[in-house]
Amino acid sequence: MGDLQSNAGLGRFLVWAAAGLTAAAVQLFGISSECPSVRANEPPGSEVDAPAAEPPTATPATPAAEPDPVRIAERDRVMQEVQTLRAAGKTAEAVEVAQQLLAISQDIFGDEHAEVIGAWELLADLFYQQKQWNGLAAAARRLVAINAKLYGPEDWRVTDARLWLRDAEVYKRLSDDAMADLQRARELNAQSTQRYQVGRAAEALESAREALEITKKVLGEAHYNYATRLNDLATLYESMGDYAQAVPLFQQALDIRKEEFGETHPAVAFSLQNLAEVYHSMRKYAQAEPLFRQALDIRRKALGEAHPDCADSLHNLAELYQSMADYARAEPLYRLALDIRKKTLGEAHPGYAQSLHLLALLYQSMGDFARAEPLYRQVLEIRKKVLSEMHPDYAQSLNNLALLYRSMGDYARAEPLFRHGLEIRKKAFGETHPNYANSLNALALLYHSMGDYARAEPLYQQALEIRKKALGEAHPDYANCLNNLAALYKSMADYARAEPLYRQALEIRKEVLGEKHPEYATSLNNLALLYKSMWDFARAEPLCRAALDIRKKVLGEMHPDYAVSLQNLAMLYFSMADYAQAEPLFREALTISRQNLELASIIQSERQQLVMSDSLRRRGVIVKSCG
Predict the structure, then answer these.
(1) pLDDT of 469 over the 60 cut
(2) pTM summary value
(3) Which domains does the chain have, with CATH numbers?
(4) Cα(119)–Cα(103) distance, integer angstroms
(5) Which of 281, 468, 515, 553 is the most buried (most CB within 10 A)?
């Protein structure tokens, strides 16, 4: 509720109301995936009214075996009225109607029922927005009692209710100026999100930092709202590729949440997931995996194995294994997540479409285009029906299908899809947004693959300029654009223009990601291949060896990218006529590729293995495609 920890019940109740779900489904929405930088449930901060009277407590009714459908319809109508008033900012009127909703729910289900918990939580949230701290405290006390009886005194829902009770006393003691400061922090947080969405990253950081400092001043560094602001700021840094800044902030937020909620609370799982995702982006797989697993374990125990948040955790772990080229472990996790979302959300839900999309990406990575294509098309149809043909997510689906066709060499089918996606993003975001740059980059890659360098070059350059202005020259995505343009010039044998771009991308990745990151190894690899093309073997060899060493240490000796580095170094020695050094490297690369194919054979046909083998052979100069 507002800045209170509202994941527990309000989300459950409102999702149920919007979707018309059953009581069993209500339980599944006990926690909804938090997206801290776009918290839609921040309160508007209305003026303080006179203290509220204690909310009415209806006499517990004995629930009927089957609720009266007439009473259920009445309950739904009243609930819709509460939502309408709440959305219109008429919270005082909404409180009165919410009390009616509570009484009706108690009459139908009895006082101690999961459905009634949702009504109490909705009422508590409205009391918070009205700054009726006595009402909030009374609601919190009832929630403590009901949740403790239904789920046990140590359950995370009881913890939430106790924190609401504590916060009712905290907010009651705050001065008007302090409450105004908290309202200002919420506004700054929303402003930060809006600024980042339109490509004003530096200003977004400024707003997020100010919101953090205000929250610290008013509530202190031990409060979970301070952890939320830390998380907001860390998320911004992560999205900007500044992992060194993001990691300690995510860690601090995790530590606070452990103290506030306990180590088995879903909010802790969310923080574990955030930290793991940064390590994943940094290619620190050994650090990411146990955090992802811990988050999954917490969610399963707290929410149940069929909860959508468990599907999120399964996705995260599967994506990690996919990055590690461990497809045999990734696929069953993706399929389990897909099944959960199908059962809880239905096949027409965007969340189900996302699960299909991730499974399609896996098959594409494996070279299994025959299984990837129908999944991408299914995602496209769902998003078209549910979101409309002008929605950015529909544009992403067009882009994904086009990327698949490009990988298949079917450029005639890829081009119109890329162009359609480009037009949607142009209208949705404008021509200065990074997402528009992503579409320009994707279309440029297509023309690059077709050998149509005249059409590729201006698109690469336009994408480069957009990212420079929107993200700055120290952002990894800007380095990707430099890399792509350099690769184009290399393909054109314009080495004089390619070299400084490759070197600039190398320096950015060195500064932002560090010298142990696989993306830095990619830059070393690309520069080495440029020198090889120039017959400058003396400069190429140490770069090839440095890239090989990084990939060996970070990715391991079984990773396909390590095999690529072995192959590149072998090709270099082959070009130098140093066959004695080339042969063992070729043999080692071949052995790794065969072993990867054997592992993949668990879930691939022979034809799919041949496609994957061809993909491994063709990996060399790496250009980056953004969706």
Answers:
(1) yes
(2) 0.77
(3) 10-173 (no CATH), 208-319 (1.25.40.10), 507-627 (1.25.40.10)
(4) 9
(5) 281
